[in-house]
Amino acid sequence: MHTARYGFWGYLLLIIGLAGICALLIFINQDLLARRGVSAQQAWSLWGGIFAILLFGLVCSPFWWAQETKERADDLSA
Description:
The chain crosses the membrane at residues 6-28, 44-65. This protein has 78 residues and is mainly alpha-helical.
């Protein structure tokens, strides 16, 4: 069962905070990443992809849970 402990805004702030921390770490460690064979463009593309997926999941999860709950209620009443 889904439990929303922090709510939408709490999770949004959490994701934005994590994105900021990761961006800072990528920015600070660009030289180290380059020495290990990871270009800055690859690192930023990966960063953008991960946080885009997280934000998409955050926005779509309430709709998915509503649909799932409705289907379970329909199954129980039938």
